[in-house]
Amino acid sequence: MAIEKFNQLKKYLDSQILGQGELTQSMLIGLLADGHILVEGPPGLAKTRAIKALSDGIEADFHRVQFTPDLLPADLTGTDIYRPETHEFEFQRGPLFHNLILADEINRAPAKVQSALLEAMGERQITVGSTTYQLPELFLVMATQNPIEQEGTYPLPEAQLDRFLLHVSIDYPDASVEREILALNRNEALNKDIISPPSLSQAEIKEARNECLNIYLAPQLEEYIVQLIIATRQPAKYDALLAQWLTYGASPRATIALERCARARAWLHNRDFVSPEDIISVLPNVLRHRLLLSYEAESEGITASIVIDKILNVVAVP
After folding, report:
1. Scanning 69, 86, 190, 295, which has its CA 20 to 30 A from the CA of 77?
2. 28-79 confidence digits (pLDDT tens)
3. Which residues pair with 92 in a beta bridge?
4. Which pLDDT does position 89 carry in this prediction?
């Protein structure tokens, strides 16, 4: 069964990326919900290692793109190359034609390069000149950004942020996990106790996605999902303080993402129905990048996480 293979994959990821259970679960949810992931955290927290480990565990090709200020859109999409011997242009495919893409430090590239990802992430295709090329059916972008260093960076526009299914925020591990990281690094250098990755086929991933879509979602919980999103757009109906904090709320993409992620989480926990816990658990990662806070909220030190906690408090669980 597909669930057994995914359990093996989760176990493998947790053995390679220590102390980041939220990240490994989010990657599997993104894989099941067919969406992209934005990971934010300080350098050195195995963000690159995580997506590489995921590619090792499934039958898919992987490509890493280091975003820099001098990167061009054609460096992602590819470009037409003129062949003198045939007097014709031939399309040279770019890195976006791989299954798993790591957009490392995505906020280091200017807007015109970031926008090259918009069509790819939204429509799973790219257009070069007058020709449109389809991307692989299994296509996942995991982008990273460093919240510490802001010099020479370009904020991601809201239109692109909205195309990320999840925004996962990670932090440093504790002391016990740090010791486990030392042992893992030492064993890898010695080629000792190396765990072999599972082999999850793309057909099994497609089967798992279909199983997620068939998981039962009660009408009351579907309404709960809708009300959570509506609370970001019409906060005054729910709470006066919430209305002061929010300028713009989440789009219908957030509603779809919340439902798909809740289904995926329920499936990963080997249940055939969605529970309120599934919705509440994935809500922060679904909404974190989709809320535009007011100047008053930012001046008071109110973060998106605080706003999301407030939303969970004012919208009743069925």
Report:
1. 86
2. 999 999 999 999 988 888 888 999 999 999 999 999 999 888 888 889 998 8
3. 79
4. 84
With respect to residue 200, please indicate whether it lies within any of the assigned structural domains. Answer: no
pLDDT in tens, 86-122: 888 888 899 999 999 999 988 888 888 887 888 888 8
Q: What is the CATH number of the domain that holds 60?
A: 3.40.50.300
Residue 130 banded pLDDT, cuts 50, 70, 90: confident
How many degrees, rounded to 5, is the angle at CA 276 between CA 274 and CA 280? 115
Residue 67 within any structural domain of the chain: yes
* Full domain range(s) for residue 7: 2-188
Residues 156, 114 contacting (CB under 8 angstroms): yes
| Residues 176, 48 contacting (CB under 8 angstroms) | no
C-alpha separations of 271 from 84, 120, 139, 275 in Å: 59, 32, 26, 9
- Do 104 and 66 meet the contact criterion of CB atoms below 8 Å apart? yes
Does residue 282 contact residue 234 with C-beta atoms inside 8 Å? no
C-alpha–C-alpha distance, residues 239 and 245, integer Å: 10
Q: Where are the alpha helices (DSSP H) in 132-275?
A: 158-161, 175-189, 202-213, 219-233, 240-245, 252-268
Q: Give the Cα separation of 12 and 53 in Å (integer).
A: 8
Rounded alpha-carbon distances, angstroms, from residue 132 to 114, 121, 223? 19, 14, 38
| 151: its two tokens | 């010099």
Q: How far apart are CA 219 and CA 29, in angstroms?
A: 22
Alpha-carbon torsion 224, 230, 234, 240, what sign? positive
Residues 78 and 161 in one domain: yes
**Bridge-partner residues for 167, per DSSP?**
38
Answer whether residue 301 is part of any domain. Answer: yes
- CA-nearest of 159, 119, 143, 120 to 251 is 159
Q: The dihedral of CA 264, 265, 269, 275: what is its sign? A: negative
Same-domain check for residues 176 and 74: yes
